[in-house]
């Protein structure tokens, strides 16, 4: 805070000097600010202005000097190296201490709707864990299976599980319950007892069907869809910032003692990622098929549409019409791009698709984790063995079992979309995609 020495008494003390003006100053204290009013003589005002002028000139000179510095690639590498050294040092320090388990408190408002979220109860706070500590030295590290929904996630998880006879995991523990109706966490806070489980996640897949399957020694493949994929809603509901997307990659849902919770595990547990791609046209139609199957139980909700080209286009027309005004009024879409895409059925799913993959690349790069790119189509007969071997090698797993043969998914692009629509999608995705993203999407056009 800058101090300016002044002479003379204030009018409140009876000074006879002429006081030119009242000076209003904001004094900042932590996160609060205080408005201070003081009076100055004309000479004091001039001295005060001179001080401000000098400080402004100094600030400009510093800013100019800083802006003239360009960081070379070597400098960037050095900075990254220092960050890595700092991270390794922090991990080394973590090995010196063993985390203490914290007693789980009963769920707040159990049996009642939570005011913050009607669907979830906030997870009880727990100590973060370190798999480098003595208590967790045998625990596997997390290898994300990052995928836009309906792009081959389930098949990939089942393939790894059955080929290696090891367990896989998921952020969505509420979909994988044991015989007692609870999720089964991968990690524990010390002793492997029910009360000592670390409920932040992730959670084992199909715990009731895991007899004879071992815990992987190196990496546990963990399903996550991250965020930004919600369909049939307004743009503001599915747009994610880089930070919020990363948090959703780490976010979990689970059931404990009949109560549904939300959790979030530490990013330090994630050491690798498999980034799964699928043909965007096939992916969008597969999402429709999944939604149709889920919603057909609600009588009349699908508006009589069927799993066919006509049913798909009718469903998309209904969805596109519903959110047409929201999209036009949203800051998310550029007018020129929206004008091109409005004629494409379920066009908002293509926006979600490309933005999801953009953010997935940003997230893995930001976390500095080793990433394998996997195309769903590479499970085909001619490339299956090569793809399978690369996948197991990446996860440091041995092949010890057998799995069901891969059934080629139906190709929808030419049947469900016109040539003009495919050309528009290519043009827009190329415009919206990061250079890295487009490098892996280009094969589909």
Automatic annotation (TrEMBL):
Residues 63-135 are annotated as: Disordered. The chain crosses the membrane at residues 21-40. Residues 87-100 have a biased composition (Low complexity). InterPro entries: P-loop_NTPase. Keywords: Membrane, Transmembrane, Transmembrane helix. This is Sulfotransferase domain-containing protein. The lineage of its organism: Eukaryota, Sar, Stramenopiles, Ochrophyta, Bacillariophyta.
